[in-house]
Design brief:
The protein has eight helices and 24 strands. By secondary structure, it is α+β, with helices and mostly antiparallel strands. The chain has three domains: 241 residues, no CATH class; 108 residues, Immunoglobulins (Immunoglobulin-like, Sandwich), CATH 2.60.40.10; 110 residues, Immunoglobulin-like (Sandwich).
Length: 603
């Protein structure tokens, strides 16, 4: 079947208007309180996207994306291809097989790892459509890797964000500026921490649809967002690309795919045709879905518009909006009789770009807690705070600081992520999310760096201590007795607490000791069994409710009173008495007297 690249649906004015109205309605249904006009644009008085979600804080760096809307016909869900999949509309309705498989596998993985997120694969498909046209219509090999790199526009501060190189060109081949990479259009600095291995080949490749789809899923599910909630869904989409138009477009495709779609062969998908592009950087994002995009020509070609033309004129004299298409027409261009202004003789000046806030950062300072300690499994009560400063010690606001948990200790930020990028506030401070201690005890390093600026990293040390209990109690008061060479009828059960709360997963050591004064292991009396092996010391762990039932106890032929000492990390101890007694001997009983008849005297 022939690939349908470069084809475009023809839409009349009425169709376009209806599509725009549909997007606005879908957006309104997903995000209560968000007001849009008939074209799906943010209306006056409506809340704007989160101001803190700037280019460097989004997955795609607010790069370019596609604004094409779904077809107005209802998709027909099928398990394979149909007769229409080879048409333009069919290619647009369907999703290439490998790409679709990657989305569904990512959804399945997130269902296991972050079930509270409720990530639908259709959301990944919607973002993939808007970012890259489903990996350029499914131009991927059998492993899901694109045949050619998909690169967004150069983020040099022209039409889009200004993000200096953060990966030394490793992902995008650009050592001066960053570019969004791959079918899900991650900027390199985000991929560095968000990247995942979705196809199990041991690599994290942004140009592999399995890796990229899984990474996008984890990115959308961070911060414990529940995507079945309209507000959380909006926040997640805007965190990918901070543009209301982007949000509306993604929502339109999400709803379209939810109604049904079908699988089409790889390489037969149609490409969208309308890229976004705001010169003011307020709504740009995502991708320029080309093999190798190039920046806009510089310097800008001279304006060939004839005198009297309107602003932003088109190719016709005086044309364009708002100038109008007729010669001399439009406002504010004026009439055709306007006398041309003579050229100035002042030599042109070369514009200079002022340094960005990031460029002024000289060093990082600790502005938070100096002593971070938490018990395994607990959330640290103190937070890490870094302050960006100039060489003179002045605070620098609006700078991205990346916090990274170093190593595999299991300690993470809230939501299970090991990396968080935070924008500094007006005081130059960036506060990392709360840390959650892993099960590995000891010191953990959390490293703060400035994104886009080479300054000395600031390391923090967080100490994870073992889980503790300060009290132990038996769950039963039944006496524990046994006969020699027998088995205790009841198992010892205990409950551990710490500061009055359940002490779960606490290590417990149970030892059969010689005496209260000599707590060394006894060599006779009761014992535990491990198969045929005799054990008089065992280390176990309480369950999620702080409860622990010890294995059955047995006894040798030694009688007497013995002691079982139970202790935990944190100082809780409990001593249990065990008795081994020979069975009581049965007391012999006298035979019962019976009445017997006396012999009758002889007659």
């Amino acid at each position: 079947m022939a690939a349908q690249f470069g084809l475009r649906l023809r839409k009349g004015a009425a169709t376009t208007a209806l599509a725009a109205a549909t997007v606005a309605a879908l957006a309104a249904s997903q995000a209560p309180g968000v007001t849009t006009d008939s074209a799906g644009r943010l209306a006056a008085g409506a809340p704007s996207p989160d101001a803190s979600a700037r280019a460097g804080d989004t997955a795609s760096g607010n790069s370019q994306y596609y604004t094409d809307l779904p077809p107005l016909d209802t998709p027909t869900p099928t398990t394979g291809t149909d007769d229409s999949s080879g048409t333009t509309a069919g290619g647009e309705r369907g999703i290439p097989a490998t790409v679709l498989d990657a989305y569904k596998k990512a959804e399945s993985s997130l269902r296991d790892s972050k079930p509270g997120c409720n990530l639908p694969w259709q959301l990944l498909a919607a973002i993939g459509k808007v970012e890259s046209g489903q990996a350029r219509g499914g131009q991927v090999d059998a492993d899901g890797t694109t045949y050619k790199k998909i690169l967004g526009p150069v983020l040099d501060g022209g039409a889009f964000a200004n993000i200096s190189d953060t990966d030394n060109g490793a992902y995008d081949g650009n050592t001066t500026y960053d570019q969004a990479v791959g079918p899900m259009q991650f900027i390199p600095s985000t991929w560095e921490w968000a990247g995942r291995d979705g196809n199990g080949d041991g690599a994290k490749d942004p140009n592999n649809i399995y890796d990229a789809a899984l990474a996008a899923g984890h990115y959308l599910c961070r911060f414990d967002w529940d995507l079945s909630n309209g507000g959380n869904l909006r926040s997640a989409i805007l965190s990918y690309n901070n543009s209301t138009e982007y949000y509306n477009t993604v929502i339109s495709w999400l709803e379209y795919y939810r109604k049904g779609t079908h699988e089409i062969p790889d390489g037969t998908g149609s490409l969208p045709q309308t890229p976004s592009g705001n010169s003011d950087n307020s709504g740009g994002g995502g991708s320029n879905d080309t093999d190798n995009s190039t920046p806009s020509p510089s310097p800008t070609p001279p304006n060939t518009q004839k005198p009297g033309g309107g602003e932003s004129g088109g190719s016709e004299p005086g044309g364009g909006e708002p100038g109008g298409g007729e010669p001399g027409g439009g406002e504010p261009g004026g009439g055709g009789t306007t006398t041309p202004t003579p050229p100035t003789t002042t030599p042109p000046t070369t514009p200079t770009t002022p340094p960005s806030n990031t460029d002024t950062v000289h060093h990082l300072e600790n502005a938070g807690a100096s002593n971070l300690t938490a018990m395994a499994g607990d959330t640290f009560t103190e937070k890490i705070v870094a302050r960006t400063e100039t060489k003179a010690g002045k605070a620098v606001a609006k700078v991205r600081v990346r916090f990274t948990v170093v190593g595999d200790s299991g300690t993470t930020f809230t939501g299970g992520e090991k990396v968080a990028t935070i924008l500094t506030d007006s005081a130059g401070k960036a506060t990392a999310p709360a840390l959650v201690a892993g099960e590995t005890t000891g010191d953990v390093t959390i490293r703060a760096t400035v994104v886009g600026r080479s300054v000395t990293a600031l390391d923090y040390t967080a100490t994870v201590t073992a889980r503790r209990a300060d009290a132990l109690a038996r769950t039963s008061d039944t006496a524990l007795t046994c006969v020699p060479n027998g088995e205790f009828a009841e198992q010892v059960g205990v409950k551990a607490t710490y500061k009055g709360e359940i002490a779960d997963k606490v290590a417990v050591k149970a030892t059969l000791i010689k005496s209260l004064l000599d707590t060394t292991e006894n060599d006779k009396g009761p014992y535990f069994k491990d198969g045929d092996k005799v054990l008089r010391t065992m280390t176990l762990e309480t369950d999620d409710n702080g409860l622990l039932t010890l294995p059955k106890l047995h006894s040798d032929d030694t009688t007497g009173t013995f002691l079982l000492r139970i202790e935990t990390e944190g100082g809780a101890t409990l001593t249990v008495e065990l008795k081994v007694e020979a069975p009581a001997e049965a007391t012999p009983t006298e035979p019962a007297a019976t009445d017997s008849a006396s012999p009758s005297p002889a007659a």
